[in-house]
Amino acid sequence: MTVEIEIIPAGRLPRLEVRPLEKRIGLIILATDHTTEVDFQRMVASDRLGVYVSRIHYANPVTPENLLKMQPALTEGAALILPDEALDAIVYSCTSASVVIGDRNVEAAIHAAKPGVPIVTPTAAAVKALKALGARRISVLTPYTIETSRPMADYFAKLGFAIDRFTCLGLTDDREMARIAPDEILAFARKALAPQSDALFISCTAVRAAQVAARFEAETGKPVITSNLATAWACLRHCGDDRARPELGQLMTKPYREG
User: How far apart are CA 227 and CA 16, in angstroms?
Assistant: First the structure.
């Protein structure tokens, strides 16, 4: 038996807001990434600010050659984030690839799809973060091999930072990097920090270092910058969120300056 159900038109169309959320951040992340989305949901996303993700192909192992292969995918990856709609910032969430490809080349590739939007890379954000903290002498901890770490050491040295100690863990799979236990990150971070350094930078968006940043700072008295902490801080500031959130680390109490 068929029941006839009357469907009543509302009589008018609903009022539409300009945006579902006031601010929006785009994330371009690796297909293998376990960590960036989780960190951004915890540190960035809110009822006011949305985080929208596009994944691009990546094949391990983590080598300069494989990292460089992602460059052609950046434009399409950016284009797939809310097509034809404006974003307040776009993050390319790979630290080692940002070094190999180059911050400016990353920016150019994304701007080909999303012109004019502020582009955030972990490396450029880390540099701004270190400057915001007044750090000139740094220690660096990476999960990579020496081969992949070398371009990063050169990157910071060329920008005028004195590197007191540079430690790498020798991993080649970013999925394993994501599985490093937080307590292990802390243990390696303690040994990686040279006493004379102003701050420690922990590289790699796969590593869950942002989760333990405040604990490290409480133990050592020294600030720590992580890849995801730096990009989250930059994105929040781009969106006009200047709140001090010391529970996430010293960086989240600092202003962001362009240039």
Answer: 37
